[in-house]
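This entry is retained here.
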Amino acid sequence: MQIYWTKINKIIEETPEVKTYLLDCPEGFTWEEGSHTHFALEGFNAGEKPNRSLIRHMSISTLPHENSIGITTRIKEQCSEFKTILRSLEVGDEVAIFKTHSNVPLKREDKNVYLLSSGVGLATFRPLILDYFNRADNVNQIHSLNIDSTKDFLFTNIFESVPDKRFTSQFVDNRKDYYEEVKNLAADKDGLFYVVGSDEFLEQNIEVLREQGIKPEQIMLDKHEQKKAEFLSFELTI
């Protein structure tokens, strides 16, 4: 396993609770849209065993052509040891990244794509939208639906409806409106549904989609195959 040590080159305050840490691209480090990485703080590998409290599984919110690795995360006032240390870091400080992989690349199967996310989960979808804007081949259209109860919606300059590019974006701040809209979107029985958020959020979305007749193979999760199979394996009791 290769560990890439790299430096923070910029910190962007996206909202009062959300920051994006832009990292220098180490030589030989590559990724694609929908990628996640293991993001680790100094000292994580100092002992005989890795200190897991200094490692987090994070989505990369940028594409390679942006020349920085973007890590977007929510840091609340009361937070974990990891987030407390991360909040104190400055430009020039070192962090590590390793085990980078994409579970949710943009599928180009001549279908409609629906991106369902909660809060900062939108960061996973930012590169998919940029990739689609750059090359729309074999994607009919994309619709993004995000729920964020804080109402501090992320990346509104990118997640803005562009009819000419067959992209629509929707933000809601409550569960009732969100799940009503998911049901509406699921009227497309041939669509591809990407879901990113907490495990509870995934379970609730999967249940709603399955009840509307969406098949497991149409649902994309940012999970490795075994975990994804566990989420999608339940039988509907209808």
